[in-house]
Amino acid sequence: MTRVVYCNGPFGWPHSTTWMGPIQDTIRSHCPALRPAHYTHVKATGPDHMNPEVRSFHHQDTFTWSHVVVDAASRHAAIIDPALDFDPVTGQIETASAQRLLEYIETTALQVDWILETHVHADHLTAAAWLKDRLGAAGTSPRIGIGRGVLTVQRTFKQKLDLGDEFAADGREFDALFDDGAEITIGNLSGRAMSTPGHTADSLSYLFGNTAFIGDTLFAPRSGSARCDFPGGDAQVLFDSIQRLYALPDATRVFLAHDYPPEGEAPLAETSIAAQKAGNIHVRAGATASDFVEMRKARDATLGMPRLFWPSIQTNLLGGRFPPANAQGQSYLKMPLGGEALESLQLKPAP
Ligand SMILES: [Fe+2]
């Protein structure tokens, strides 16, 4: 039987070849610079494991793509970047969108091993905790994972939101904090985390077979790249992360976290490394870091605050849970106030 070998050696990932003989001979001949230390990362799989199934769900209110990646042979799966429905005017939180994911999981008889966040999003509230609870009640126990950089994001916003000592900012809300290169298994499908910061400090891409879930590292080619002006963002760092993605094979299927289509066009969930390198309006292959950083800084200076910034950050820092309720069962979100009039309007203590 023809099988495929892949590894995360020095030539990028996945680095694949047909495996006919002893695995280490094949790797040495195809990948001569591979050091023995890399052998621990070598995986041999059937062809299906290079081509996982992916089903994408569009969250219209926030232009978010949520994805379900499936190991077809075992029917195990991971959910990536699920969204809650939130009305910032009324404070109402609904789950119709997350329910669609759940229905898909149930009707296709999937077992969810992971709920994965590409980063602490600033534009939608994550449904990770809600899905974990629902799936847990149904007898499975998915784990919520995010990049270890979430610790930096938690510390930053603990201070900005004055969250107090009850918020430990030690990542305890998540079941796994991934470092660059961390292995993540879905059934028999072995993938890995790739650190891709720049948009945020914790941004991470997930690689499974020939698929990459890149969060906001890049948008669709016609839309370019994500802003880098949030706390912890850095355009030079994002440029370097994009170069890491561009080192993946051209045929890698690239799944987006958002799409903002022009009027009359359908949102795009999937593109490829080749399409990004050839046509991304902000960073084609061969673009210079200085041009990118200059463009990004000029563009970021024109962007307003995302509509759901404070509710999203505060919820997503907690993996999709909400601050503890008071004695009446009411939970609250905070936002820091500012503006020229703040000082003169602040209530003074009674004399
Ligand atoms: Fe984002």
Describe this structure in words.
The chain is α+β, with helices and mostly antiparallel strands. It has 2 domains: 3-45, no CATH class; 53-300, Metallo-beta-lactamase, Chain A. 24% of the residues lie in helices and 22% in strands. The protein has 9 helices and 17 strands. A 6-stranded mixed β-sheet has the order 4-5-6-9-10-11, covered by helices on one side. A 6-stranded mixed β-sheet has the order 12-13-14-15-16-17. Strand 9 (111-116), helix 3 (128-137) and strand 10 (143-147) form a beta-alpha-beta unit. Helix 5 (235-246) crosses helix 7 (289-300). The radius of gyration is 21 Å and the shape is globular. The termini are far apart. Mean pLDDT is 89; it is low at 1-23 and 34-46. The protein binds fe (ii) ion (FE2).
Give the topology:
Layout: E1 3-7, E2 15-19, H1 23-30, E3 43-45, E4 53-59, E5 64-71, E6 76-80, E7 85-87, E8 92-94, H2 96-107, E9 111-116, H3 128-137, E10 143-147, H4 150-160, E11 176-178, E12 183-186, E13 189-195, E14 204-208, E15 211-213, H5 235-246, E16 253-255, E17 270-272, H6 273-279, H7 289-300, H8 309-316, H9 342-345
Parallel strand pairs: 6-9, 9-10, 10-11, 15-16
Antiparallel strand pairs: 1-2, 1-3, 4-5, 5-6, 7-8, 12-13, 13-14, 14-15, 16-17
The structure holds fe (ii) ion.
Residues 119, 121-122, 199, 216, 226 line the site of fe (ii) ion.
Task: Provide a short characterization of the protein structure.
This protein is of the alpha+beta class. The chain has 9 helices and 17 strands. Helix 5 (235-246) crosses helix 7 (289-300).
Unreliable spans are 1-23, 34-46
Quickly give the CATH architecture of the largest domain: 4-Layer Sandwich
Could you state the CATH homologous superfamily of the largest domain?
Answer: Ribonuclease Z/Hydroxyacylglutathione hydrolase-like
Distance between the termini: 86 Å
What hetero molecules are bound to the protein chains?
Answer: fe (ii) ion
Number of helices: 9
Mean pLDDT: 89
> How many domains make up the coordinates?
2
- Which sequence of strands runs across the widest sheet? 4-5-6-9-10-11
Helix content: 10-25%
Shape: globular
So what's the CATH class of the largest domain? Alpha Beta
Counting DSSP E segments of at least 2 residues, the number of strands comes to 17
Q: Which structural category do the helix and sheet elements fall into?
A: alpha+beta
